[in-house]
Amino acid sequence: MLNNIAIPMFNDNYLWLLVSAQNTVIAVDVGDYALLQDFLQAHNLRLATVFITHRHYDHTAGLAQLRAEYPDVPIYGHDSIAHITHILQGGEIIYIKDFGRFLIIDTRGHTQFNLSYYHLQQKLLYCGDSLFSAGCGRIFEDGNAVNAYQALQKIALLPPNTQVCAAHEYTLDNLKFAQHIEPNNIDIAIYQKQCLALREQKIPTLPSILSTEQRVNPYLRCHLLMQRVAQLTQKTLNSPSDTFCALRAYKNGWTA
Length: 256
Hints:
Elements: E1 3-9, E2 13-19, E3 24-28, H1 33-42, E4 46-51, H2 57-60, H3 63-69, E5 75-77, E6 86-87, E7 93-96, E8 100-106, E9 115-119, E10 124-128, H4 145-156, E11 163-166, H5 171-181, H6 186-200, E12 208-209, H7 210-216, H8 226-233, H9 240-252
Parallel strand pairs: 3-4, 4-5, 5-6, 10-11
Antiparallel strand pairs: 1-2, 2-3, 7-8, 8-9, 9-10, 11-12
Helix pairs in contact: 4-9, 5-6, 8-9
């Protein structure tokens, strides 16, 4: 059994580490090299591999120093990102010694190039900012809302017990918006209570479970929300994809 660890990084990021029985580590989105190195040394662990989901600074700022200190450690990601040594496009299955097989999913949309890493045996999804608990990443200038919707549809096809290892602790804020969209959704109220209890103890709300996300995350429920989102946005919506695009844009201007 692999040990999946979320280390708080910056204000609300997580540095995800997957630790093998051999004390080797896969690090996901190394925004802070010193944080990673301190943890490795404190626990006598050896860095084996790095996964990068997308280009943003809080996910990549540690790569230059990591590459200098660990020149032989492979860094997987899209070739648009500096310091990547092993180029991925999405659709690949890769094998990492001590860890097993990962399915690489093209989840572009948040930015032009986004990758998610899915551990096939343990059902762990490292999705960066493509999917949050009860939310999803905003669409940046090089992103595309239709692509982001398609990315979430790919994720929705994964097993319901998939653990969603998102990159940010945005859950409570996202749940406020989810309640605004679906005020009568009892699953949102129950999940919010659970997450509040975790955060009061400074425990991460992540990983979340995909089946839970499909009950509480409005961006995974666009097929059910067309009428509600049309009412809120005063737009004519003809498909779940239209609904997603309108909902994601509406969120950008929404305040609790």
